[in-house]
Description:
By secondary structure, the protein is mostly helical. The protein is 71% helix and 4% strand. It contains five helices and two strands; from the N terminus they run H-E-E-H-H-H-H. A two-stranded antiparallel sheet has the order 1-2. A hairpin with a 7-residue loop joins strand 1 and strand 2. Helix 2 packs antiparallel against helix 3.
Amino acid sequence: MMEPVQITLFDYLESLENIERxxxxxGAINPKVSLKEIDVRxxxxxxxxIVSMIRDYVRGLDEVKxxxxxxxAYYRNKFWDMAEKISDQIGYDYDAALKKCLKxxxxxxxxxxxxxxxxxxxxxxxxxxQNTEAAxxxxxxxxxxxxxxxxxxx
Length: 154
């Protein structure tokens, strides 16, 4: 029995690239289809998610694999082209969507944070109001005390 061998994702993808295999798709009229090109029906939102995941994956790996020649020269372009092909077919502009999302995030901070800040401001205002009232009462008390002293002295 052969020992299992661990290979990288890139090695695995490369091994699949030039092999024509057949797969079975349940419920299809022609259950045996070549992997070269197949028709798949997905919802628009699912395709947008796939494009976004591929683009985010590429962006993340660009940071980690800056010095990896194989990634930069081959796989990066392969993933990028795949995302672009899907984007073109569905009319989705990832860059515009990302820009719009980042603008929204700049304008709107975290809802939980907003609630916390509002609660703290309210508490601070309430505390300030109580301190002002207490100071007013003290001042009034001091004035009353001075008046009483003047009355007893006079």
